[in-house]
Design brief:
Elements lengths: L3 E4 L7 E5 L4 H11 L6 E4 L5 H12 L3 E6 L2 E5 L13 E2 L4 H11 L6 E4 L2 H5 L3 H9 L3 E4 H4 L1 E7 L9 E3 L5 H11 L6 E4 L7 H8 L4 E4 L2 E4 L12 E3 L4 H13 L4 E8 L6 H8 L3 E10 L2 E9 L3 E2 L2 E2 L11 H9 L1 E2 L2 E4 L6 H14 L12 E4 L9 E3 L5 H13 L4 E4 L1
Helix pairs in contact: 1-2, 1-8, 2-3, 3-7, 5-7, 9-11, 9-13, 11-12, 12-13
Length: about 425
């Protein structure tokens, strides 16, 4: 039976240090890329979460040895770039789109058959954006609904995949990564051009493994790996996930009297849109102890409470903060003036996240949220939440937003967990 937990407002500001969990995107890639090496790789601060564990399960099924020393520390030992083996059963990606899309690119060039399944949610999500460029490279991938949905089967090809130049209609790190991973095994260099540069964790980590990549503007080119040039590092320390830090960045800003130190946060420039937007809104955010770990920039972040003002931002920054849009919506509810998100996604998904989330947590509406006009406007500033209850089936992301707003106001939110 679901347990009801009530979230009450904070009487005094939040003070202290927070150790941020490992970055989800980098945790996925650390296991995948380490599994393509032939020496042990010690991975620390791994995010022990269901999605990342789906990647671990898939890599194990492909013959990679993964030993957990504890929940957040593991040793991965592969059998070389061409050492993956045919799985004995169907590969289960769970709810992880990252696992599925990146592994489609990695397995498309392999000389064996592999079949993927996933949970109900992943089964409904379209894979055409990845399948199209991989098919142009010569990959053979078949699935339900005209090859767009799970289950999907990847059939070995008679020849090497072709290196291509692909102009992606969307700035998507998952699409780009799938193409680059397939390009490791292609017969010629492979180039991906995006409208804007999406997250580049794949490029950063592959470079750390000795892969030759070149970037020009919004294009990145990967060169086929030559024999013996793929070299796994001895250790990888996963930076803290800025998407997880985002909740504390907003809470530390909107809860009066707060001052927090967020430790070991990844500040990859393709992910720091949340810092840029909050700073422009007037947030008191400072970086200290900046450093580099495994090719990724890392820092400790100090955030203190501050008054916010509404701003306007749009498509040019969206790839750098797409996962943080819902938490920015919470910050906007506490800002003076309108916050306008221009040129949002054509399918209205960003508008929908904001609209549904704010309706749940504050019984407010995002005025002017019209996908056909490509704009979402958050106009209402809240001082007090009306008592509200989130059902057991509510999206955990929305429950997190509700918790943030509740602790910063005089309202109460109950969640069935």
């Amino acid at each position: 039976m679901a347990e009801i937990q009530t979230i009450a407002p904070v009487r005094h500001g939040w003070q202290g240090e927070v150790e941020i969990p490992g970055d989800k995107s980098i945790s996925h890639r650390s296991v995948m890329f380490a599994g393509l090496g032939n020496t042990p790789v010690h991975i620390m601060n791994f995010l022990h979460a269901a999605d990342c564990l789906s990647t671990v399960g898939v890599m194990r099924a492909l013959g990679v040895d993964v030993e957990f020393l504890n929940e957040n520390e593991l040793i991965v030992t592969g059998k070389g770039l061409h050492g993956l083996t045919e799985p004995m059963t169907v590969l289960d990606a769970g709810n992880s789109g990252t696992t599925l899309r990146l592994m489609m690119g990695l397995l498309a060039p392999q000389p064996f058959l592999s079949t993927f399944c996933g949970d109900a949610s992943l089964t409904r999500r379209p894979m055409a954006r990845v399948l199209l460029p991989l098919s142009q490279m010569g990959a053979k991938i078949y699935g339900r609904n005209a090859n767009k949905n799970l289950p999907l089967t990847i059939v070995p090809t008679a020849e090497k995949l072709r290196g291509i130049r692909y102009e992606s209609p969307v700035a998507s790190a998952q699409v780009k990564s799938a193409i680059l991973l397939a390009g490791l095994y292609a017969d010629a260099p492979t180039t991906v051009t995006e409208l804007y540069v999406s997250r580049d964790h794949t490029e950063q980590m592959l470079a750390g493994f000795g892969v030759h990549l070149e970037r020009t503007g919004t294009s990145v080119t990967v060169f086929p790996v030559e024999e013996g040039s793929y070299r796994a590092p001895d250790e990888i320390t996963v930076p803290g996930d800025i998407s997880s830090a985002a909740y504390f960045l907003v809470a530390g800003t909107i809860i009066e009297g707060s001052r927090l130190l967020l430790k070991n946060v990844g500040i990859n420039p393709t992910r720091t849109g949340i810092l840029d937007v909050l700073t422009e809104m007037g947030a008191d955010i400072r970086l200290q102890n900046e450093r580099t770990s495994g090719g990724e920039r890392v820092a400790d972040i100090i955030v203190a409470s501050a008054s916010l003002r509404g701003i306007s931002f749009g498509a040019e920054i969206m790839p750098r903060l797409i996962d943080e849009i819902p938490v920015i919506a919470v910050a906007a509810l506490f800002a003076e003036g309108d916050t306008v998100i221009t040129r949002v996604l054509a399918d209205g998904s960003v508008v929908t996240q904001i609209y549904q989330g704010n309706k749940l947590i504050a019984q407010t509406m995002t005025r002017g949220a019209h996908p056909e006009r490509g704009k979402a406007v958050i106009t209402e500033r809240i001082e007090k939440l009306k008592p509200n209850t989130l059902e057991e089936s509510a999206d955990p992301l929305l429950a997190s937003k509700a918790a943030q707003a509740s602790v910063a106001t005089a309202g109460l939110v109950s969640a069935m967990l």
